[in-house]
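Request: When convenient, would you put together a sequence paired with its structure tokens?
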Amino acid sequence: MNDLAPLLTPEGRALLDEVRDTDPAHELAVATRLRRDHPAELVSAALGQARLRQRAVAKFGAEDAARMFFTPNGVEQSTRRSVAAYRAERLRAAGVGSVADLCCGIGGDAIALARAGIRVLAVDRDPQAAAAARANAEALGLAGLIEVREADVTEVDTSGYDAVFVDPARRSSKRGRIFDPEAYSPPLSWAVRAALGASRAAALKIAPGIPHEAVPAEAEAEWISDGGDVKEAVLWFGTVPGTIRATLLPGPHTLVSRGLPDPEVRPVGRYLYEPDGAVVRSHLVAEVAETLDGGLIDPTIAYVTTDTLTPTPYATAYEITDRLPFNVKKLKALLREREVGVLTVKKRGSAVEPEELRRKALPKPHGTASVTVFLTRVAGAPTMLLGHPVR
């Protein structure tokens, strides 16, 4: 599955076209049939690549995924196309004409940069990742803008490029997800030095859970979400140091820190706002609360409450109908009384697992009504808030 060379031959490409839409349930029968006319290893590689392409549709879209080549790690770790395009546009708008893309993986970011008209040197030490990046540049007609090099990124001279983009590995085959930035490969400290040496700009992709105190003083920090899911944080160099921002895609909608104090705590009002995850990660809940003229339901909980409805891209609004102390029996009786058939459970500041509460409070649907329950704290007390999203 990991050796792409046979798939790049005319026979391999023809086989990829033939197995493109293979249903996993029928894979064994398809493999048995194809092995009558093709080497077993090639059939296995083609079917494996077809599975990877199907998985990649969520990140790259159906059209690109059907033409690209993937490794298992490449599908898992690649940047979503919308996020990569947003970053590439920021670099293009900053006047960047060339980028050294270090730890390029299968080339997802290099593709976005090239489509923005930027010349790219894409570097990765993994032979299979580099081979996939090279094949993808050719498959998408971008080979003229993307040079792929198999090398150790710490040994590459980037002085001839306007900008540096680094996407260090944040997973280990032995330890899984890596939380310590200095355990990244290469370490964050090395990536920062590479960024500071760039002539015009630099961007470092990091895990969204990075502590704010770990952000270098020379950097801008941006947290990015797509469709409500936090995807990554980016350290930007060559912009305004110390800037903190949250960007929501599609849009983009960008909220920039103004250094506001924590919002005041007030009683639960008619509406509850759930800030986007990028807003929470970037510590910009106060900025959202100010635009809503709202306050917090608890000093430690990132829910904003108001008595008026104000549209905002940075938070989802819910109309609150009930406030109850935490009590599963009372909630169960209320759901039965209101003939609730669909229960959505959200939590913030509660140790109760949503699925556990859903199982206990609504073992059987009682009707067609839907309710959202927030497991949280209000003024320090465990509380259940019931409501529904405002459309």
About this structure: The radius of gyration is 25 Å. DSSP finds twelve helices and 18 strands in the chain.
